[in-house]
Amino acid sequence: MKNLNLASSALLVALALSCGQPAKKAFDGPAYLDESLPLEERVEDALSRMTTEEKVALTHAQSKFSSAGVPRLGIPEVWCTDGPHGIRAEVLWDEWDQAGWTSDSCTAFPALTALAASWDPSLAGLYGTVIGEEARYRKKDVLLGPGVNIYRSPLNGRNFEYMGEDPFLASRMVVPYVQGVQSNNVAACVKHYALNNQETARFFTNVTVDDRTLYEIYLPAFKAAVEGGAWAIMGSYNLYKGQWNCHNQYLLNDILKGEWGFDGVVISDWGGVHDTDQAITNGLDMEFGSWTNGLTMGMTNAYDSYFLAAPYLDRIRSGKVGVTELDDKARRILRLIFRTSMSPEHKRGKFTSPEHYAAARKIGAEGIVLLKNEGDVLPIKDARKILVVGENAVKMMTVGGGSSSLKAQHEVSPLDGLREALPGVEIVYERGYVGDAGGEYNGVTTGQDLSEKRSAAQLIADAVKAAQGADYVIYIGGLNKSDHQDAEGADRELYGLPYGQDAVIEALAATHPKLVVVNISGNAVAMPWVSRVPALVQDWYLGSEAGHSLADVLTGAVNPSGKLPFTFPVAMEDGPLKTAEQYPGVPGDRKWESSFGAVPILEETYSEGIYVGYRWYESKQIAPLFPFGYGLSYTTFAYGEPKVSKAVTTDGSVSVSVPVTNTGSVAGAEVVQFYVADPEASVDRPVKELKGFDKVWLEPGETKTVTVQLTRESLSFFDAARHAWVAEPGRFDVLVGASSADIRGTVSFELK
Ligand code: BGC
Q: What pLDDT shows up at residue 13?
């Protein structure tokens, strides 16, 4: 054998020399280490060399964020990190406390709501690429993000980590993000699959939803991510059909791995695994963050007590279960390792580079939405003195909010951003209200002292007084990342602005004609003062470059082009969630035997069905405060007649185009939206649904034709009885506009 190898190597050398090529040494190690081999061959070879114990060790955590590789074979550990807005600071091996590194302060990127509000898939690609570079640099193999749970209620504390209320928009935005991350040999782990649309009782809510709603509203973005090549997906905490979603036969085996053919790894949410037998059979591949039943947290062998650790091995050894599932799990995990840390590409990544900050700034600015601009108050011009009011003008927002909390290398506040952008202008600051003066999450602190002794009345009086003589008053408030605001683990309790902010805004509106209100949040909020405020901007948690992005828009350095990725209703009561059965759920008969004792599982029914977001408001003809897809610009756009490529189609493929002209005096971008209506449907369908969009940049006076391609899928609804997507023959209308409520033209065609 050895001689044969020698002989063949000699032949190769001779061949190479005769072709004038330098000799390439043949790989003489085991096949799984041979980077020239196809991935599946490496996987099978590695698998064939592993013991059962080694395979089981792959399937569960060994620390808070890592799992063991196969040390004997030199197959590395798998390292995960949150996700989704930056690379989380390092924690201790077995604790949430900080490891105390000095080299883990990252670039904080804008919240995913901001990315979704950009309506620009190419920016999603940029986002994925740069955050993937940061993850790779920090030697992470799995980025726990992006999140694509649909915005069902404005009270959901984690909406800021998601991509809005529309499955088509979220689907278009998630794919480039995933591909950008993975271009760095870092797996994106799309979360939280599925039906995890609230934080209240997230560990023990059983969701009942009809199949049509599941397939039309809650699954498409996950499916798009899988079709886009996602290497990992995270199961959610809640239950569906009475099974926990981290080991759920229907969601994981039937749909994800069955219908969609997912070949990647299902990772549990941290502490989302409850049962060894179901974890073995129901589609889970890797278990993380379990509370170890009956053992002290942090005990040295606690990880061996995970549901997929010793209990799994015991079942195999006693012959209670076979190894078919184990081989499948190990195969998927090896695939992930060969796609990431053992990929032949050897990417190295980049961390806190100038390009990363530039990307954060650009994505942030492109996501900001101009909601109101009466009398062209904005952009700021000819100002000598500006009063800035509000805690969110100074409060660092990268810390807090739960697992997406970051230790940012720097964070430019809105106040600092404005001061830097307007050097000749006197900018004075007044607090206006006290929100949350704290600034700590898991041991990462902002170091800001936001303590305040003045009363609420005094703070308002001081702000009003300071407004005298100012050319502009810019109020910067909204929500923050504290509990019951925009934060993981607990939903908001009120739709209105907290901390008495409405009174501050009313007082300023009564004092100054040039009031600009900037709302920073990841959710819609009530705005009872909206008619008294001339200029209104929806800002988001924009990370490191927050202040630069906002200043870019307020000064006009960037012409705003963001559009709302979710509806702002006037009041909560206008929305679809009317009963406790719908939200937050009611205690049912099932019990969860948790480590805190027996907890009744909440039963929750999505009885509003497909009528989520604008689908609801439009079907009920309830005018929202600001509609889905809405956002203004410093210029104006005129839409010409929309046209279809053919009047009749047999397969549903039609292209729709519309000329759009910049009719103002500054350059800017417009998000042109295409909604499909099915007026002749035999089933109840929404008034219309987003099925295409494009963002187009136009110089003043310039016209461009925007074209989108529709397919049979764009025309279909999910027929639960047939378990199939159905496009019914008949007339379809395409409504083309600048928002869901601002339709500029309609064109029809027929499906034969
Ligand atoms: C969150 C996940 C997160 C994980 C690890 C969980 O509590 O739901 O989104 O990735 O913790 O921090």
A: 41
Q: Is 269 a catalytic residue?
A: yes
Residue having the nearest C-alpha atom to atom 3 of ligand 1: 403
Name the closest-CA residue to atom 7, ligand 1: 270
Ligand 1 atom with the shortest distance to the CA of 236: 8
Cβ atoms 177, 229 nearer than 8 A? no
pLDDT digits (tens, 9 = 90+) for 227-265: 999 999 999 999 999 999 999 999 999 999 999 999 999
To the nearest 10°, report the CA torsion of 659, 364, 229, 717: -50
What is the C-alpha to C-alpha distance for residues 139 and 141, in angstroms, rounded to an integer? 6
CA distance 672 to 734: 12
Residue type present at position 448: Q
**Selection from 612, 607, 608, 619 nearest residue 688 by Cα:** 619
* Percent of the chain scoring above 70 in pLDDT: 96
220 upstream amide cis, omega within 30 of 0: no
Give residue 289 CA to ligand 1 midpoint distance, Å: 9
Ligand 1 atom 12: the closest Cα is on which residue? 403
Q: Which residues pair with 655 in a beta bridge?
A: 709
Radius of gyration of the chain (CA): 27
Residue from 104, 120, 141, 269 carrying the catalytic annotation? 269
Q: How far is the CA of 259 from the centre of ligand 1 (A)?
A: 26
CB 558 within 8 A of CB 367: no
Can you read off the two tokens belonging to residue 446?
């902002």
DSSP string, 35-53: TTS-HHHHHHHHHHH--HH
Whether the pLDDT of residue 412 is over 70: the answer is: yes
Is residue 48's pLDDT more than 50? yes
Contact (CB, 8 A) for 583 and 153? yes
The token pair that represents 676 in the structure block: 């499909």
pLDDT at 663: 98
Distance (angstroms) between ligand 1 centre and the Cα of 724 equals 33
Residue 283 alpha carbon to ligand 1 centre in Å: 19
- Residues near ligand 1 with C-beta < 6 Å? 82-83, 144, 191, 269-270, 403
How large is the angle between the packed helices 324-339 and 39-49, nearest 10 degrees? Answer: 130
Counting ligand 1 atoms within 8 A of each CB, the residue from 193, 195, 488, 491 with the most, and so the one to mutate, is 488
CA distance 737 to 671: 9
Please say if the pLDDT value at position 19 is more than 70.
no
| Lowest-confidence region among 5-14, 345-354, 708-717 | 5-14
pLDDT, position 480? 98
Query: Residue 367 Cα, ligand 1 centroid: separation in angstroms?
Result: 25
Over residues 634-654, the pLDDT tens digits come to 999 999 999 999 999 999 999
Mutate to test the pocket of ligand 1, among 87, 97, 142, 144 (most ligand atoms within 8 A of CB): 144
Average pLDDT, the chain: 95
Residue nearest to atom 6 of ligand 1 (CA): 270
Distance in Å, CA 232 to ligand 1 centroid? 14
Q: Can you tell me the distance from the alpha carbon of 99 to that of 487, in angstroms, rounded to the nearest whole number?
A: 23
Give φ, ψ of 562 to 5 degrees: -75, 155
Determine the 3-state secondary structure of 602 from DSSP: strand
**Atom 4 of ligand 1, residue of closest alpha carbon:** 270
Condensed to tens digits (0 to 9), the pLDDT of residues 464-493 reads 999 999 999 999 999 999 999 999 999 999
Ligand 1 probe mutation, 87, 88, 270, most atoms within 8 A of CB: 270
pLDDT at residue 15 greater than cutoff 50 = no
What is the pLDDT at residue 7?
42
Atom of ligand 1 nearest to the CA of 144: 10
pLDDT at 16 over 50: no
Segment 384-398 mean pLDDT: 98
605: exposed, middle or buried (Cβ count in 10 Å: 0-12, 13-18, 19+): middle
Residue nearest to ligand 1 atom 9, measured at CA? 403
109 with 135: CB under 8 angstroms?
Answer: no
